[in-house]
Structure formats: C-alpha cells, structure tokens
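Thread: Newbie trying to understand structure tokens

Hi all, I'm a second-year student working on a class project, and my supervisor (Dr. K.) asked me to get a predicted structure for one chain before our next meeting. I've only ever worked with sequences, so writing a 3D structure as a token string is new to me. If someone could post the tokens and maybe explain what I'm looking at, I'd be very grateful. Here's the chain:
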Amino acid sequence: MSELMNEIVGGEAYQYYPLGEHVVRAVGVCGGRPTFKYTRIEITGTLERLASGENIDDIVNGYRGRVSREAVKEAVSLITSYFIETFPILKAA
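---
Reply by user tm_fold:
Sure, no problem. This is what the structure looks like when written as tokens:
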C-alpha cells in the first residue's frame, strides 16, 4: 500500500492512502473502501453504473463537478489492473 497522506480539507484532517491521482482509501471514510478523492463517493457504485450501460458523461454530469471523467477512467483502470494482477495463472493439464 502507498504512504499515508495527511491534508487539511475544509478545516478538517483528511488522511488517505492514494491508489491513484483521483482514487483513494481514506481513513474513516466508507469503511476504507476506495472512493474518489475528497468525496464519500465509492468507486463501486460508479463501476456498477458503467456496467449496467450508463454513459460515462451522464455519470460525470450527475456528480455535478465532484468527480471528473478522468477520475472515472482511473477507477476502471485500477480495478482492471488489480483483476489481471490477482487472477490465477492457468497451467496446462
């Protein structure tokens, strides 16, 4: 895991482990599940919306500037990379 980062946001301490530029695991936020930085928006909900066929631009517009297109793309990329890296290697029988 990355190094714990400490910031002051809106006058309050914000501690998080960066998973990317836009996706973090923040201490005390959503049980430590990955969220978009500075929000309480879990990436899983966004990924589920994409999987159900919702358009990325509609999702971003629905977040009203709190989550960017780049952040959504990063979430997809992070999950895809994690899936590929943790998938077991098959051996011929």
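A couple of things are worth pointing out once you decode it. The mean pLDDT is 94. The two ends are 35 Å apart (CA to CA). Feel free to ask follow-ups in this thread.
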